[in-house]
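Milestone M4 deliverable, item 7.
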Amino acid sequence: MFVEERVYRLKPGCIPQYFALYETKGMEPQARYLKLMLGYYASEIGGLNEVVHLWAHESLDAREENRARMRADPDFQSYWHEVRHMIVEQRSRIMKPAPFFTERLARLIAAAA
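Output delivered:
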């Protein structure tokens, strides 16, 4: 299992609009393909105007396949067309849980399902 951290730095003042569009137009089509959301956040201290989201993936191959299917979804494409102008920078990193946390992460995901 892997955890992906995605960070979008938005234009100043865009976080409320970004969250509103995600909640009403982006979350549902994204959830069709990325089922293991671990969190969705806005920065308060440090680098501002950032949206951070965390996703668990069973494997890197599953991540690639699911993201490709999501990007091909017309509903997701429509949402992305509306929000992409707000995004100044995107960063993503893939992390592997520590050996002692793998089982706990699996339990957290199972409990949320």
